[in-house]
């Protein structure tokens, strides 16, 4: 890294030539040229050092020494301002790579569309039909392959020639019925971060970071058919529902609702019995009366809402608390949870106990109870899973190792309040967590765990 910074300095002061960038750089900042007069601000330098195989902790003192090579160099003074030096290692690189798909946007003309009523968290949504010629703009990459990242929030990938999928193919191949495809197929549900109507073109919208959350099978079959029969179904009509929202919690609920259908239940049949056992365990506990919402809307009348918890949220907490991976439960949590389920790391009777999930629900209950009653205040909204993990660690440090012992202890509000306040204060002193995407970083989660253990060990030594 030091050699990288040294070479960057040599480039900036003109001792190291890297073409064509050196010529461009020289032309832009030539005081006798025209370009420099058009600069409205001092050019800023951001350095990114990437190391895909390392997992080091770089001390701030070391980074500051490297920054001074630029900030204190006379030849650079008043010519550049240093923005920052970023040291990206394997976990951050993976995370950044996973976010590339969020830059995707596409402009589509809908054949027919009706804009639905505006809601607080959904400013614009559509019920529409779209020609396959336009849908191709969304689903195809530049090299005419299917855009796999579209299905990142779908509950499953393409599953091949099932009876339903064969029926879709049959409809496409039948000249008598393919014109009725829009009536014979449920179509697609698309969620996006933003949906903007074109200012001039009629029925044209720009979709920012679109994801197909329902309709993966239909999309793949249409793609395969078009590949074998180029342009033959360009005029085919497909029904679509497009929803734009910035509310992450609402996104998760929409995705869950869009996929909580009978076909999905069959996929999860092997898990149903265990989920039912978890639900029954909740019903049998009266320490804190909580509800496991195994079926969507099952406990819709329960209030406050944090007295109930669904499989998705309980999995997030389990992975954060018991597997100590809260950083993975941020972006793309749905697809990651699906991977954990497939690998039998969550909802597995052989590796977890039913009371573990009830304990997760208690942590979730106290978290929202204390938050809504202003007992705790979060320095960052993204620290939620780290807080729950840390509460569990604190209980273990204090001798509550077995899950039932933890449940018994924090079922008392005063005990729970003490744990949450104590841990929240400790986390908020760890500035590295509140740096950009700090709560998404595996190394920083490990740093937090190490810090909490050291604090407790020091207290024990004093006692």
Identify the notable features of this structure and list them briefly.
flat, 3-stranded antiparallel sheet, alpha/beta, 5-stranded mixed sheet, 14% strand, 463 residues
State the gist of this model.
The chain is an alpha/beta fold. The chain has helices at 2-12, 21-28, 60-71, 90-98, 132-139, 163-173, 181-184, 216-228, 248-259, 262-267, 269-284, 311-321, 333-342, 354-372, 384-397, 403-410, 413-428, 442-462; strands at residues 44-51, 81-89, 105-109, 112-115, 124-131, 188-192, 194-197, 204-208, 211-214, 237-244, 291-292, 308-309.
What are the SSEs and their pairings?
Elements: H1 2-12, H2 21-28, E1 44-51, H3 60-71, E2 81-89, H4 90-98, E3 105-109, E4 112-115, E5 124-131, H5 132-139, H6 163-173, H7 181-184, E6 188-192, E7 194-197, E8 204-208, E9 211-214, H8 216-228, E10 237-244, H9 248-259, H10 262-267, H11 269-284, E11 291-292, E12 308-309, H12 311-321, H13 333-342, H14 354-372, H15 384-397, H16 403-410, H17 413-428, H18 442-462
Parallel strand pairs: 1-2, 6-10, 11-12
Antiparallel strand pairs: 3-8, 4-5, 5-10, 6-9, 7-8
Helix pairs in contact: 1-3, 6-8, 11-14, 12-13, 12-14, 12-15, 14-16, 15-17, 15-18
Structure notes:
There is one protein chain. This protein has 463 residues and is an alpha/beta fold. The protein contains 18 helices and 12 strands. The strands form 4 sheets. The protein has a 5-stranded mixed β-sheet, sandwiched between helices. Strands 3-8-7 form a 3-stranded antiparallel β-sheet. The chain has a two-stranded parallel sheet with strand order 1-2. α12 crosses α14 and α15 runs parallel beside α18. The chain is flat, with a radius of gyration of 27 Å. About 2% of the residues have low confidence.
